[in-house]
């Protein structure tokens, strides 16, 4: 089978309070997205890497290594739309049973070992799967009472069997297209696996690593830098 990487990088990074889109923030001397791309380029298992950016993106050409990856300028209003548009654009290049590893640009700590671990564990599966981490904290359900300044816990959710989804999330091209086409609410379908689950399939969970964190808040940049400096 062939394995392709698809990196949605069309977000605006609203929570980062940075000047530009967060995928271009400097992490240890390289734009975040370049670290993410390099993880796939360093894996011998990946046939080709595609990056999805918005049509107005003016920075991407300075970031991608020439010839090594394909840039698709068809980003949408949500991650879901960006991935869907990209998959549509690849209809002529990918076969029904080719694997697609969808990976957030905002997870620059991915490396070849994690990619290999996921492919080894899931490459023979009928459905596919994703990197994820078991929840280690106690999880609270909370609600905000009228007039309160902070939310209050109403119960604790047993953390047994709870996982935090990371990416890559790998599924076969046709199944992923069908699942995303059936997804309508981008606020509920926040990753690829949730669209697959909504079809009634059960994606496998493969233990990831904290280095594969999603850079979301300014402090995450320092954590990512630390992991990338000590591979
Ligand atoms: O915003 P968040 O960190 O959840 O975004 C996850 C990934 O989805 C990022 O790599 C971001 O660039 C991408 N994205 C996208 N198109 C959007 C929104 C987010 O490709 N419209």
UniProtKB/TrEMBL annotation:
<comment type="pathway">
    <text>Isoprenoid biosynthesis; isopentenyl diphosphate biosynthesis via DXP pathway; isopentenyl diphosphate from 1-deoxy-D-xylulose 5-phosphate: step 2/6.</text>
</comment>
<dbReference type="GO" id="GO:0050518">
    <property type="term" value="F:2-C-methyl-D-erythritol 4-phosphate cytidylyltransferase activity"/>
</dbReference>
<dbReference type="Pfam" id="PF01128">
    <property type="entry name" value="IspD"/>
</dbReference>
<feature type="site" description="Positions MEP for the nucleophilic attack">
    <location>
        <position position="159"/>
    </location>
</feature>
<feature type="site" description="Transition state stabilizer">
    <location>
        <position position="15"/>
    </location>
</feature>
<feature type="site" description="Positions MEP for the nucleophilic attack">
    <location>
        <position position="214"/>
    </location>
</feature>
<dbReference type="InterPro" id="IPR001228">
    <property type="entry name" value="IspD"/>
</dbReference>
<dbReference type="InterPro" id="IPR018294">
    <property type="entry name" value="ISPD_synthase_CS"/>
</dbReference>
<dbReference type="InterPro" id="IPR029044">
    <property type="entry name" value="Nucleotide-diphossugar_trans"/>
</dbReference>
<keyword id="KW-0548">Nucleotidyltransferase</keyword>
<protein>
    <recommendedName>
        <fullName>2-C-methyl-D-erythritol 4-phosphate cytidylyltransferase</fullName>
        <ecNumber>2.7.7.60</ecNumber>
    </recommendedName>
</protein>
<feature type="site" description="Transition state stabilizer">
    <location>
        <position position="22"/>
    </location>
</feature>
<comment type="similarity">
    <text>Belongs to the IspD/TarI cytidylyltransferase family. IspD subfamily.</text>
</comment>
<dbReference type="GO" id="GO:0019288">
    <property type="term" value="P:isopentenyl diphosphate biosynthetic process, methylerythritol 4-phosphate pathway"/>
</dbReference>
<dbReference type="InterPro" id="IPR034683">
    <property type="entry name" value="IspD/TarI"/>
</dbReference>
<keyword id="KW-0414">Isoprene biosynthesis</keyword>
<keyword id="KW-0808">Transferase</keyword>
<dbReference type="InterPro" id="IPR050088">
    <property type="entry name" value="IspD/TarI_cytidylyltransf_bact"/>
</dbReference>
<comment type="function">
    <text>Catalyzes the formation of 4-diphosphocytidyl-2-C-methyl-D-erythritol from CTP and 2-C-methyl-D-erythritol 4-phosphate (MEP).</text>
</comment>
């Amino acid at each position: 089978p062939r394995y392709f990487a698809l990196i949605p990088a069309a977000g605006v990074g609203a929570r980062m309070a940075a000047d530009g889109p967060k995928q271009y923030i400097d992490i240890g001397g390289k734009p975040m997205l370049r670290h993410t791309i390099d993880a796939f380029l360093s894996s011998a298992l990946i046939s080709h890497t595609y990056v999805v950016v918005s049509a107005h993106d003016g920075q991407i050409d300075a970031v991608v290594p020439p010839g090594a990856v394909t840039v698709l300028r068809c980003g949408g209003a949500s991650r879901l739309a960006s991935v869907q548009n990209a998959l549509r654009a690849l209809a002529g290049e990918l076969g029904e049973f080719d694997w697609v590893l969808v990976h957030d640009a905002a997870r620059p700590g991915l490396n070849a070992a994690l990619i290999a671990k996921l492919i080894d564990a899931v490459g023979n599966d009928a459905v596919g799967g994703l990197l994820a981490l078991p929840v280690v904290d106690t999880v609270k359900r909370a609600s905000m009472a009228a007039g309160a300044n902070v939310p209050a816990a109403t119960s604790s959710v047993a953390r047994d069997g709870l996982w935090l989804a990371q990416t890559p999330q790998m599924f076969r091209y046709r199944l992923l297209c069908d699942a995303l086409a059936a997804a309508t609410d981008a606020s509920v379908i926040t990753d690829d696996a949730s669209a697959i689950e909504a079809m009634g399939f059960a994606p496998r969970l493969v233990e990831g690593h904290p280095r594969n964190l999603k850079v979301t808040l300014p402090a995450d940049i320092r954590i990512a830098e630390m992991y990338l400096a000590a591979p």
